TrEMBL record:
This is SLAM family member 9-like isoform X1. It holds the Pfam family V-set. It comes from Carassius auratus. It comes from the Eukaryota. The lineage of its organism: Eukaryota, Metazoa, Chordata, Craniata, Vertebrata. Coiled coil: none annotated.
Length: 232
């Protein structure tokens, strides 16, 4: 009878352990996107921080800050020099703010909070470089077809970009687009319009959090071909 009870208790303990394990490690990863140079706050979503005795933030497998809730002491001694002066921890919530964020700060951040209740959260932070407005140029096609006489050949270009979409818009409608995820490449998207075209055109570059627009001035760019390239 005692052995049967012991097995039952052991089985229940294993189930409770597995339930806690799933609760800790089964939490979804929170995706955070931020522009280089901005600040980002990783929120604990905890309102009663007093339930915990210690809070620990990690970047990858390295501890970057520790907070002793009882003594209210923060230690950044183990954090990389590149991060140390840019970390701010909220004493009330344990949330972590990274200021003047850099592309090298991209990666996985892990929050661990200790006491009788154990909490773990994971954040995947992606940093995007600032976007410059697209450059629109006109050029004379090599062929001497009627389209080269009555039409205007244009290129919208961006340089040293990654994870962006480059698009031409006719009014508010998407006309054409191209997307890339490579690192630091140059990208161009062609367009041909008639000299007398009265529609408005614009070229837009965007990433998941920002965009930049350059509007086409047909009267300025679309001049009769003289062998010269015009840009705005």
């Amino acid at each position: 009878m005692f052995l049967k009870l012991l097995k039952t208790v052991s089985y229940a303990c294993i189930l409770i352990f597995l339930w806690h394990l799933i609760g800790v490690f089964g939490d979804e990863v929170k995706i955070v996107s931020v522009m280089e140079g901005d600040s980002v706050t990783l929120h604990t979503d905890v309102t009663q921080i007093q339930k915990y005795t210690e809070i620990r933030w990690m970047f990858g497998d390295k501890v970057i800050t520790r907070f002793n809730v009882t003594t209210q002491q923060i230690s950044n001694s183990d954090s990389p020099e590149s991060l140390k002066d840019r970390l701010k921890l909220d004493h009330q919530t344990g949330s972590l703010t990274i200021t003047n964020i850099r592309t090298t700060d991209s990666g996985r951040y892990i929050l661990e909070m200790y006491e009788k209740i154990y909490l773990m959260k994971t954040f995947e932070v992606t940093i995007y470089a600032p976007l410059s407005p697209p450059v629109i140029t006109s050029y004379c096609p090599s062929s001497s077809s009627s389209s080269s006489v009555y039409g205007c050949a244009l290129l919208c270009s961006v340089f040293n970009v990654s994870d962006v979409t480059l698009s031409w818009y006719k009014g508010n409608s998407l006309f054409s687009s191209i997307s890339v995820s490579d690192l630091s490449i140059s990208l161009s998207l062609p367009l041909e319009v008639k000299h007398q075209d009265k529609n408005s055109y614009s070229c837009v570059i965007n990433n998941p959090i920002r965009n930049q627009t350059t509007h086409l001035d047909i009267t300025q760019l679309c001049q009769p071909c003289s062998g010269k390239v015009v840009l705005i």
